[in-house]
Amino acid sequence: MSLTHAPAGAVRQGSLRELNLALVLGRIATADRPPSRADLATATGLTRATVSAVVEDLLAGRLVSESDPAPRSGAGRPARGLVLADQGPAGLGLEVNVDYLAVCVVDLAGQVRHRTVHRADLRPVAPADALARLVEMAGAAREDAARHGLTLVGAALAVPGLVDDAGLVRLAPNLGWRDVPVPALLAEHPPLIEQVPGVPALVVDNEANLAALGELHSQPPGPSSFLHISGEVGIGAGIVLDGALFRGVRGWSGEIGHLPVHPEGRPCRCGGQGCLEQYAGQEAIVTAAGLARAELPADTATARLAELAEAGDADALRALHDAGTALGVAVAGVVNLLDLDTVVLGGGYAALAPWLCPPVLAEIGARVLTAAWSPVTVRPSTLGAEAAAVGAAGSVVRRIVAQPAGWLARAG
Amino acid sequence: MSLTHAPAGAVRQGSLRELNLALVLGRIATADRPPSRADLATATGLTRATVSAVVEDLLAGRLVSESDPAPRSGAGRPARGLVLADQGPAGLGLEVNVDYLAVCVVDLAGQVRHRTVHRADLRPVAPADALARLVEMAGAAREDAARHGLTLVGAALAVPGLVDDAGLVRLAPNLGWRDVPVPALLAEHPPLIEQVPGVPALVVDNEANLAALGELHSQPPGPSSFLHISGEVGIGAGIVLDGALFRGVRGWSGEIGHLPVHPEGRPCRCGGQGCLEQYAGQEAIVTAAGLARAELPADTATARLAELAEAGDADALRALHDAGTALGVAVAGVVNLLDLDTVVLGGGYAALAPWLCPPVLAEIGARVLTAAWSPVTVRPSTLGAEAAAVGAAGSVVRRIVAQPAGWLARAG
DNA sequence: GCTATTTGTTCAGCGATTGAATTATTTGCC
DNA sequence: GGCAAATAATTCAATCGCTGAACAAATAGC
């Protein structure tokens, strides 16, 4: 039932303006060329009078600005193009991963305006210390952002593990974290965020989820429903349905790493048998390729593997083919279940995509009933290594775009 | 991003009333006791003045009526309870299945007001003839409905197969249908439906999807996210997320029958190997239990199997245990992927649930990473055999409840 | 019979959208 | 160069629907 879903609560007089602010701003955000007020009127169905009034609010709140290059040329008064402001609210993205810390700032338009990566093995570091380092990096990011006229209105932290609604990291096995109360630990540091109604100061979420969100909002815009697979030590998936991340009942969706691909196969640390992770996880691939994994950190191992495959190393090629086949079995199951037409390989898989895609596609072709009518695209992620941090920061500014009324109420 | 999703288009002056009509009517529909106007005001956040105006519209359009038993007793003016009208718009549910045709009428409140089942082997019957019989049954249903003051405002047809957006049945393997243009075939018969803006006259959908919708709207209300598995000859699943059926990019989601449970196992007609259907499909179970399947139609075979299991027949019990284990492997994968907390066994599985649930739960417990923190419920469907027809009819009236403005515009 | 209490309605006020008229600014043609 | 056509954006009275407060209705308890 694809009904236009109504707002949850009461629709008051003022909601009308709130909804139309969001409608117009969203249109400006997704347009490929800066639209004029007249363009917006025809696109949204509102009258030009209303659009003018709404745009005036947005201009006053510095969420949009008028662009110099006119969107049209020809007879008639020239239109004034509207673009998202390159100053004003911005999102702070944070990421703790096994071998790096990342911080970035993304503006309203989705541009990455600041980026810092600190490479280090985080496994021996206590959570509180890791977060303290991250806060230090974030402080520098905030100052840099302020110099560009950007105000941080919210932060999102990506963690490779299970996170509950309150931001408690239940389990991040590869990081060695268990029951880490991130919000409480971060509350001990001076706040970097200017609170805005409707935008949570801090969201903690799974790295795979946030990387998928980053992919969703990357340029050029891709499909609105897809599966994003982050192949790290574990294998996580972010499921994007109709332009929204699907989190599951408790926010623990996407545990694709424990789909069974050989039900009577190798035992897995999850307690099951033959889980995907045992055949297509980073350690499994590296080991199968004959690389002594202990000598290398995860990202270097992946790069080395790509080098070997490039050079035609038989062991590497076979390891990648086997991993791709296992991945394909799992992905085919997901596609059968959810009827998705796009699968994005992210994280460590992105660099290995040239060798993983063919066997994945082969399994999809063999196992997906509907593949004959509708082809499935499998492609590497367009975002770089710290996709989750970018997606995290992007998720903050998307809230401003989706609910501009909160920011405008603040800005006066 | 669980933002309150705004309406897709422009929010005009009149949309406000439309949205609040839907809000108030939805509240009346989901309340456990007939709410008063005052109850609705506090529940929705609207003022009592607005609620009174909205309710007046709903009463005038005969979508709700005032109930006799007052919702409250005590000091103060007695409240007048509001309930969904038992006259007015109703939905027509149709179902073509392998061994029966079913027609039913469901009123606004979700009550089944008419029900006809015609048992026959439909495999040798041409699609046009099967639909003609269904139309005949529907005509009688319409007359019966009219006698109760019900007007049919839309129809939904459940088919055990893949259906595209236009209502074309691409493939219904167990029925022997391929590329059947249902809307065109039904257009040759006189219309039974009174057109209402916003309500499609005919929707054709997968039987598993509509059965899941029926479960969603069954009384008492259950969870808003769950997996509904219809175990017939094939195995289909309806995925309900946040109170809405998830259809996938092309409407072909839920093909759980082809999740791999033994990737190097038996070949499947889909082209893959070791698909769930080969281990937990009705034929597989019946054969494994030692019943000669040819002698029995599908529903009788299931009943017989339940009898044997009840009597302690070792072969039947083993067959059910093995099928349940295979089903559990697949369900565990789905739960890992989507983080659902409820699985409903419907269709042929409903009657076999006492024997299927334990092995399914065992596999979930062993393979689902998060099962330790959040238990998963596995239970049989509460609806009867023709759940899809009831769900189909229910999906029609749900549209009226979700968008009452269309009906009100018609009724004046 | 009076008061407290709760329900539901009435009504002036107001915010936001609408549609038509008006102003603003350019291109192209004579 | 000047004028008409075309397109963009604004202004303004009218209207729709929600709000808040006052008011009328109806009952229980004392």
TrEMBL record, chains A, B:
The keyword Transferase applies. Keywords: Kinase, Transferase. GO terms for molecular function: kinase activity. Pfam families: ROK (PF00480). The keyword Kinase applies. Belongs to the ROK (NagC/XylR) family. This is Glucokinase. It comes from Micromonospora noduli.
